[in-house]
Amino acid sequence: MDLLxxxxxxxxxxWNTLIHYHSIGDSxxxxxxxxxxxxVWCKPSEEFSGYLYKVQGVVEDxxxxxxxxxxxxxxxxxxxxxxxxxxxxxTFEENCCVMRYTTAGQLWNIIAPREFVDFSYTxxxxxxxxxxxxxxxxxxxxxxxxRGFNHPCGxxxxxxxxxxxxxxxxxxxxxxxxxxxxxxxxDTAMSSTLANFYSDLKKALKT
Length: 207
Description:
Blueprint: H1 7-22, E1 30-34, E2 39-44, E3 51-59, H2 63-70, H3 76-79, E4 83-93, E5 96-103, E6 114-125, E7 128-135, E8 146-147, E9 149-150, E10 153-160, E11 163-173, E12 175-176, H4 183-206
Parallel strand pairs: 6-8
Antiparallel strand pairs: 1-2, 2-3, 3-11, 4-5, 5-6, 6-7, 7-10, 9-12, 10-11
């Protein structure tokens, strides 16, 4: 079993990587999907052979409540239809933890259930919040799951200046699902999953 990383240095590295993604110009992104709730773009990842996805939409709620629904905690399992289990393995301080979670099969189970172990970090950013994470090669893989890997990912949640009861939520996601999957299948699943994430989150915030 690998040792857990030193949390402060990993959090700093994650922060710097997400700030870099957030500064990438519009011309570098290619449109992938658009729904009434969100727009998805992609570009080749700097971390692996797949894509870095950017997804953005306006959500009706304050940043703290939105991020509480996204980061590891009691809310996430209640509304995220893709996530089937979640356990906090280690807590370093209030805003840092290691979690293990599993996801449901997708695309008529062409994509089998996956397991991830992620380091998660939440911090302030401008007038809002950033919650971000990266997978760790840690612990034994559960039977009947493929261990996936999230390269640096994160969600920026910033209140709208002229309407602070609404927030702009921008996500950067690059998930290596692993296993024997055609890239086209992964790309289809990722775009749809990210768009659905917004519609599911909005429903959860209204309850």
